Prior knowledge:
Layout: H1 3-6, H2 9-15, H3 19-28, H4 35-41, E1 54-56, E2 64-66, H5 78-112, H6 124-133, H7 143-158, H8 173-181, H9 189-199, H10 208-238, E3 244-248, E4 258-264, H11 268-276, H12 280-288, E5 294-299, H13 300-310, E6 314-316, H14 321-325, E7 332-335, H15 343-347, E8 354-357, E9 368-369, H16 377-391, E10 406-410, H17 414-422, H18 430-437, E11 443-447, H19 459-470, E12 473-478, H20 479-487, H21 501-510, E13 515-519, H22 524-537, E14 549-553, H23 559-570, E15 574-577, H24 588-602, E16 605-608, H25 612-629, H26 643-651
Parallel strand pairs: 4-5, 4-7, 5-6, 7-8, 8-9, 11-12, 11-14, 12-13, 14-15, 15-16
Antiparallel strand pairs: 1-2, 3-10
Helix pairs in contact: 2-3, 5-7, 5-9, 5-10, 5-23, 6-7, 6-10, 9-10, 10-22, 10-23, 11-16
The structure holds FE(4)-NI(1)-S(5) CLUSTER with Oxygen.
Amino acid sequence: xxxxxxxxxxxxxxxxxxxxxxxxxxxxxxxxxxxxxxxxxxxxxxxxxxxxxxxxxxxxxxxxxxxxxxxxxxxxxxxxxxxxxxxxxxxxxxxxxxxxxxxxxxxxxxxxxxxxxxxxxxxxxxxxxxxxxxxxxxxxxxxxxxxxxxxxxxxxxxxxxxxxxxxxxxxxxxxxxxxxxxxxxxxxxxxxxxxxxxxxxxxxxxxxxxxxxxxxxxxxxxxxxxxxxxxxxxxxxxxxxxxxxxxxxxxxxxxxxxxxxxxxxxxxxxxxxxxxxxxxxxxxxxxxxxxxxxxxxxxxxxxxxxxxxxxxxxxxxxxxxxxxxxxxxxxxxxxxxxxxxxxxxxxxxxxxxxxxxxxxxxxxxxxxxxxxxxxxxxxxxxxxxxxxxxxxxxxxxxxxxxxxxxxxxxxxxxxxxxxxxxxxxxxxxxxxxxxxxxxxxxxxxxxxxxxxxxxxxxxxxxxxxxxxxxxxxxxxxxxxxxxxxxxxxxxxxxxxxxxxxxxxxxxxxxxxxxxxxxxxxxxxxxxxxxxxxxxxxxxxxxxxxxxxxxxxxxxxxxxxxxxxxxxxxxxxxxxxxxxxxxxxxxxxxxxxxxxxxxxxxxxxxxxxxxxxxxxxxxxxxxxxxxxxxxxxxxxxxxxxxxxxxxxxxxxx
Length: 652
Ligand code: BF8
């Protein structure tokens, strides 16, 4: 899209379904280039698409461009190179999630030793559960001692050289057996990532299926290891989420307040900033600079973290980050890690907005670096808020905040879902299992993952979510998909009227919405825990692969999404991507392994379907096949049993 085209009202609707983003593009589009302009002016490299073969850059004799009929210089085939490249993407995605988990495991130890100012253990019960799963002695020991040992054990899992990581025991026994049989139970995720990198070096592992099995082991080490540790410890330190109301979209920026945006993925410093923003002294300081208060809002998964626990407004997902700056209303954007566009550094120079990087792992040209070191949280948060306040009088350009907001309900940890289903004294997944069995809920579908500038922002997430709830499928969401659905109003309480009759009856009875926001991308591990507990509850088979469930990443773009898709498939779930192709489309051999091959070995698969309606139909048919196999495909009438009938059932 060139400058001329972006000034055409119709083209804004082509690039986004978000009314606020379209409004800003309509006003300022073309004046400052954004990702939407770049994606219009630069086509995707065709290498990797089904017609163009694939590129191998793993040694200095290349890059070799390889097709079905042509190998690389070393003789590597299209299938081998495709599998190698995918394995490396998965390793990078697993590394991102798991390194995030490692930092939290380390932080837990610092909190236990009183070395992380401003932080404390907020959910002791969850700490006990994690400690138990990691084999830590509880007894009547002091909570801080348990936390210290849990931190040590969690940290040791990352580099575990031999044997199985403890957390795979969260999975159903049958699933663990499937993994053992195929030799993909992970050791420490660090070791699995290193092994992927080694095996994909020139001249090592050359059989596509064998390479992909290692990629699976690495991805399981992410989902059931690194990511799960990240989620658990975030809940321990900042509280396990409970349902809470909030608002979303760019309309949550305030013209008369200091707007501070937190963006990225890490919860730690952001949580401290959110808490400190209410500090009386800082609010008074903001007033002394002419502002009415301090408004903290979020973007991407950091937003999801603070939304889930504090009700802070997510003002946008991945494709909204530049657009938010263009409102001219943001005093400071503080970023940590992952999914932060490098373009922000240059873009902020056109506005008064200050861009601040805080992670020792991430610096951006044009940003101010203020490093977060675990022990300086309070001091650093105060400094950052003050910097934002000092920048308020520097607003020079005209402010333009679209008047677009939506209400939402978020905060569905697996503990909270269980509590809502069963009540305080009988927490249980039983009502969910029963509703699936009697057909009021046809199945559960995870709609997760990113925005992608090659796909109309939010369009596929919202289409699928609407169509699924209409047909009585409960939808669980994480990451940018969740923010997308919230922005279009599907998480408003009124959205219940879009749900099918069966799903609506359950949601009304237990008081949950038909679309559950489960958190950030690392929180996809919550979906694994829910699936394991649903199996354990009984009546829907013995393994995750028996359940009428599916996973979709319709606007994927990040390597983390590839790792997530792989561990979800390896956990026994039909998984499908749309939007841009997954980078295996040129190799029929690899596609066959990931569909037919993985289905046989793991009972789940990963494929790409570009047509969104075809994708929806495939998901529905896969779930209906599962219902058939479970013999629950015929809708049963609900029979209310009297006491006598209940007794008779008990006697059988
Ligand atoms: O981890 S969904 S664009 S923000 S990678 Fe990134 Fe994708 Fe958004 Fe969160 Ni997840």
